[in-house]
Structure prediction request, 228 residues.
Amino acid sequence: MADQRSVDVGGIRLSYRTSGPPDAPPLVLLHALGEDAADWDAVLPALARSHRTYAVDLRGHGRSDWPSAYSLELMQADVLGFLDALGLARVDLIGHSMGGVVSYLLAQDHPHRIHRLVLEDAPLPRPREPSTPTRPDGALTFDWTMVLAVRSQLDRPDPRWLPRLARITAETLVIAGGPASHVPQDGIAELARRIPDGRMTTIPAGHLIHRAAPEEFTEAVSAFLADV
Prediction:
């Protein structure tokens, strides 16, 4: 059973769920755009057997604060502040989609803080054709202003992000969703090639790999995190 907690990071309240043995190696999980910590529920019990897990609601999502300022860089800074606030010097890190982008930005700029990195169907930081998203009807569990800000960055990423993938020192597992995913799979393959200690595996379950194929996902991730 995961404990629901929150912590103040630079004036932003971040909500998170934690589970697993307190003395186990720390594992942080970052969700996709429009999701929250609950999105990991299908895989957390398996991952928490060997790790102390921390599933974070990024700013503008779930129970975390919804401020007026949004960017992938601010989310990266939030996660770094989260590690500092909880005294987590070095962690394993899993990021899905947008959370994967936040994860590799953190691993680029603070390589000593990331031991092992898992990027689940995360896009390569290269320009893509912009599209205008349509706001869903009804109440949302995320800030629509955040969606517009982040989508703009994903469409036109900072050109410095691509070459900086070479600065990542963490052993990295890139998990691709296969042909059913909307994320270009050639870009995911390039992502794995550009990270010095990167490797790629494909679980052909589409973009929502950990939700559509939780057993295959946890098997691949657990084997990678346990590999010495």
The helical segments are 44-47, 72-85, 98-109, 144-155, 185-194, 209-212, 214-226. DSSP finds seven helices and eight strands in the chain. The chain has a mean pLDDT of 97. The chain has one domain: 3-133+140-226.
